[in-house]
């Protein structure tokens, strides 16, 4: 499975998990259960695309009937043609990867900068409680927040609303909410292009506030006094990174949750709806099985590039020429076909991938074993879509055109061999 295909499945799973939370769980007052669901659904989203059902099982048979051609979907998402013109020297896939890495590094730097900024703010805080969860008072009117297992209150809050706010922030610290936020922050950096990740982060923050409000209100005794404290503490100047803070833009939702009746306990059964969703995703993420006849019952019979490049052969089979690197006359044992970097390379027949690796001279090389002793070789590739040991079908995208190894420009070096004897590839497509 290509990494881009894995990312596609991962993000679809995250979206499905958040939609289920929004539709079913968001209004329930089982806040601790919601916390575990939000984080668990995210972890499960990373795992589900990697799971494979045992071949021959009934579930695998269902998956084959209803399975999605993910490799085809992936090729549509990362189609090489529209983003860059032919001859630009860079493929769409490389361009997308470069943009992704650049934004990811930028967001990581921003995350680290916010952490450092947070540390500079609390450097001069005065400790007022040193056992267990530590409590500090800030001279600046910055609002109240929890960072790691430390509670920070500004002096105004400490002197006027300290009791209610402190109880609220102590819940954040004692339940280690900062671990949730750090985890979500890293996921947000890695998957910045998925808006559902940030919706999930917002849901996690909201649920933390509901948890802390519920517990702090119970300890406070008076709901009216706690609501008055919420009213007075809504204006803040600071929102630290990976911290839980008393001021929240969800103040209206928090008041509604505080004044709502608690959900009846029998509605915990609603959380079982996670099971059918996970089962549906697991079945949908299975790749349709490649039949044995497709894998081992054919000889090479397909042109390995899109048809428009059929007449782009730049070095024919058995043609003698001066090698551009060795400067010696050599006989060519395959065909070189010019095509733009990033063009899809197809398996010439069904078979088993024996090699998918970088070799000196060949660059990125794929070798596919077919029936009757036939093998096909695809060299100077930009990147792989398969791994050694994968079964591939005829016409399946296995790589993209590149210029790796000893190559003077983007092209595909294609060979057909039978029992290691070189054959003319043009006789097989």
Explain what this protein looks like in three dimensions.
With 429 residues, the chain is an alpha+beta fold. The radius of gyration is 29 Å and the shape is elongated. Strands 6, 9, 10, 11, 12, 13, 14, 15, 16 and 17 form a ten-stranded antiparallel β-sheet that branches. A five-stranded mixed β-sheet has the order 1-2-4-3-5. A two-stranded antiparallel ribbon has the order 7-8. The chain is 42% helix and 19% strand. A hairpin with a 2-residue loop joins β3 (145-147) and β4. It has two domains: 3-283, no CATH class; 292-428, Glucose Permease (Domain IIA).
Helix content, binned percent: 40-55%
Computed structural class: alpha+beta
Ranges where pLDDT stays below 50 over 5 or more residues in a row are 79-88, 290-297
CA distance, first residue to last residue:
27 Å
What is Rg?
29 Å
Shape: elongated
Total helix count? 13
């Amino acid at each position: 499975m290509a990494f881009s295909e894995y990312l596609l499945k991962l993000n679809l799973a995250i979206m499905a998990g958040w939609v289920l939370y929004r539709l079913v769980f968001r209004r329930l007052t089982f806040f601790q259960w919601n916390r575990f669901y939000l984080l668990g659904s995210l972890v499960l989203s990373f795992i589900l695309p990697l799971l494979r059902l045992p071949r021959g099982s009934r579930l695998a048979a269902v998956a084959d009937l209803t399975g999605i051609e993910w490799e085809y979907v992936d090729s549509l998402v990362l189609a090489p043609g529209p983003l860059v013109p032919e001859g630009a020297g860079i493929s769409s896939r490389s361009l997308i990867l470069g943009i992704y890495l650049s934004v990811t590094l930028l967001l990581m730097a921003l995350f680290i900068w916010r952490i450092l900024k947070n540390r500079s703010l609390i450097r001069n805080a005065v400790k007022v409680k040193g056992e267990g969860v530590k409590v500090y008072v800030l001279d600046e009117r910055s609002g109240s927040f929890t960072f790691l297992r430390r509670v920070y209150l500004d002096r105004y809050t400490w002197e006027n609303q300290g009791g209610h706010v402190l109880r609220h922030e102590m819940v954040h610290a004692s339940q280690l909410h900062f671990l949730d936020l750090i985890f979500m922050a890293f996921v947000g950096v890695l998957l910045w292009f998925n808006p559902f990740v940030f919706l999930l982060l917002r849901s996690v923050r909201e649920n933390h506030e509901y948890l802390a409000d519920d517990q702090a209100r119970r300890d406070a005794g008076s709901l009216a006094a706690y609501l008055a404290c919420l009213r007075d503490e809504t204006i803040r100047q600071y929102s630290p990174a990976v911290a839980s803070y008393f001021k929240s833009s969800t103040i209206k939702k928090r008041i509604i949750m505080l004044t709502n009746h608690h959900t009846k306990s029998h509605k915990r059964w609603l959380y079982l709806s996670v099971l059918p969703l996970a089962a549906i995703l697991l079945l949908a993420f299975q790749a349709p099985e490649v039949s044995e006849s497709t894998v081992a019952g054919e000889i090479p019979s397909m042109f390995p590039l899109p048809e428009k490049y059929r007449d782009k052969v730049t070095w024919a089979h058995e043609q003698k020429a001066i090698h551009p690197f060795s400067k010696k006359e050599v006989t060519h044992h395959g065909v070189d076909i010019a095509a733009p970097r990033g063009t899809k390379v197809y398996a010439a027949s069904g078979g088993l991938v024996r090699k998918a690796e970088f070799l000196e001279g060949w660059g990125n090389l794929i070798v596919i074993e077919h029936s009757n002793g036939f093998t096909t070789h695809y060299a100077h590739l930009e990147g792989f879509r398969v791994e050694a040991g994968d079964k591939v079908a005829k016409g399946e995208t296995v790589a993209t055109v590149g210029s790796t190894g000893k190559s003077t420009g983007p092209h595909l070096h294609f060979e057909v061999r039978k029992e290691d004897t070189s054959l003319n590839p043009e006789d097989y497509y």
